[in-house]
Every structure is written in C-alpha cells, then in structure tokens.
Amino acid sequence: MRTVRFGIIGCGLMGREFASAAARWCHLPEMDVRPEIVAVCDTSDAMLAWFRQHFDSVKQVTSDYRDILANPDVEAVYCAVPHNLHQQFYCDIIRAGKHMMGEKPFGIDLPANRAIMECIAEHPGVFVRCSSEYPFIPAMQRLCRMVESGECGEIIEVNTGFLHSSDMDPEKPINWKRMARFNGEYGCLGDLGMHPCHVPFRAGWVPKNVRAILSKLVTERPDGKGGTAPCETWDNGTMFCETLDPRTGKLFPWTIKTQRIAPGEKDTWYCEVLGMRKSVGYNSKNTDSIRIMDYSQKGEQAWQHIDMGHETAFKSITGGIFEFGFSDAVLQMWAAFLYEMEHGQAPSLFTGCVTPEETALSHRLFTAALESHRNQSTVPVDAGLQ
Q1: Among the four given CATH numbers 3.30.360.10, 3.40.50.970, 3.40.190.10, 3.40.109.10, the one describing domain 134-320+354-380
Q2: How far apart are CA 118 and CA 120, in angstroms?
Q3: pTM for the model
Q4: Residue pLDDT, tens place only, 52-93
Q5: What are the E-state strand segments in 148-261?
Q6: Closest CA to 180 of 231, 105, 107
C-alpha cells in the first residue's frame, strides 16, 4: 500500500476529523493508498498539542504554513483556514507542488476563486479538490445512483438545503463567520452552499438564473470583551434557480436553502428529486433512510422508506446492517480523494470530491444571488465552466 504523507494547515474541527480518519484507515480493506499525517500548522498551541498527543507520525509542528510547503516529506496538504486566506494559502500550496484538499468556498469571492483557478491551470500536475462529505452517506449514494441511471425520468423539481440552528441564540458571541472581512459578502451562501450544490452540480444540473432572498436576522452579537460587534454577513439565504437538465434539454426549478438560524434544525442536510417516473428524497434527520416513490407503473403514489445501513462507496469492514455516521462520511470522502489522486479518476460519477470547476460554478451562482437580492430581480448565471 502506498503512503501519501500529509500536512494539515488549520487544525480545528475538520483537521482533527481528517486525522481521525487517517488513524482508522484499516476500516477500508480494499484501498491501495493511505494517508499519514506528518506535519501540522496552526496558531493555536492547544490544537497543536492535540496532534502531538495522539499522532506519533507528526514530525513537524509549526505556526507558519510556509514551513510545511518547504518540507520535502509532505506530498499533499489539507488546508482548512478562514475564507479570506484561501487565495493566498491555496495558491502557495499549489505552486509548491503539493496536492491539496481545500475547504469551501475556494476563495472569499469570485475574483479570489478565479485567481485560484488560474493557479490550478498553471500547475496541471497538482491534484486539487474541495471538501464536501455528505454525498458519501449511503442513502445519498443510492439517490445518486438513481439520478445517474435516469430512473426518475424527466425532472420536475429539485430541492436541496443545509439548515442548522447554531446561531439561534442572539447572545452567542460573535465569531469570524459573522465578519465580512473574514467570511466575505456571501455569508451563509459561501459557508454552507457547496453542500446542497455538490450533487446537483455533479449531475450536470446547471442553474441558468437565480432569484435570491437573503436575511440578516441578528444584527449584533457580544464581542467577548463586554461590548457588542455588528454582524455583517447573511444568516439565511434562499435561492430559486431555473435549471437546465442536460438529459432532456428542459428547464426545471431548483430551490436551495442555506440557513444558520433554522428553528427545529440541529444540522440538517437534505436533497429531494421529483421526477416524472420516480421521486426520491434524503434528509439527514433520518440519515439511514431514503424515501422513494415509484409511479412508473401507474400504481398508487406512496412513499417507500428504505433503511440503507453501512452500504458505502468504498468498502468498509463495518457490517452492512450497522448505522452510518458523520465520521464515516469523512472517512469515505478522504478515500475518494486519495483514490482519485492515485488512480486518475473516481470509481463512478458520484464517488468523487468537489472539483475546482464546481467551486467556480458555485461562485458564479452566489455572486448572481447577491446581485439578485440587492436588485430584487432574477439574475442570469454565467454557467460556462472555466
């Protein structure tokens, strides 16, 4: 088995999730490539101490990411830093010749994303992908197979979203995601939007235009110093898109919701595809279940609920009857990254990570959504992939 030595830049939640996945790589008995964490970078001593404590493989610990880029033992990098740092960090990583998994949205705004895309084009030997783990949930893989095979027939409507209530409490202290200089004007669109866009983009469903409604529900929060600070970014966003289905050449409505203040939602991701022959839906509140309605035989219109179990894209030692969780999705996503990096292509259409081109499409969509909200109008989306 070939070993790919990784550096992690940004050792927060997702950096630790990746490290945990690397430690559990024996869960994937058919993989012929594995990651090893050899270098970590963060400005927090506490985060770095966690890696020192749990990973003997880590030989380099630093607060300067350029040290990792200069390390010849590092072949690939996972970079999870605030959005305002994406352009500089991602481009520096790519120019250093390191393969990279980056975090959404791949740039704080459209110009930053274009700069990253230009850098990628200048270094074709560097493998680059974006993090999004939810499509690797078994129920979503079942939905994806139905989409890929055309089982649903002509698409009537698609609804996707990522909803949670992390900011329901107006007394929650402000963090960088509420500050435009760190998170960008997109707000919840850039921070959450790739999750509900990943599967539709991979299906080839291209939004032609968008009408967006954005909300700032909490205008200021405690600053942690006894005062308050303004909340500059959008809390909630809804995008209504007229979307092209390449199979039929017809347009259908696609509704995308990204919400940080969603009553009753803990951390909910959903995808619903309504078709002329079959409809299918997934909701993470019932993460092991998929809903399918088959009326192709002109019978009763009744939803069938199927429990999926641990039926993964990349084979696991866990028995198929057992339940699947978030850490399992992260492990599957990293298996997808390493498999495609090693073999040159994903096993199938929906078993690959988000591509740079898909991040570019998301930026054009989100930029059009900002204009739509400002002007209270429907705005065309330039959907030509760059």
Answers
A1: 3.30.360.10
A2: 5
A3: 0.95
A4: 999 999 999 999 999 999 999 999 999 999 999 999 999 999
A5: 155-164, 206-215, 220-222, 228-230, 236-245, 250-259
A6: 231
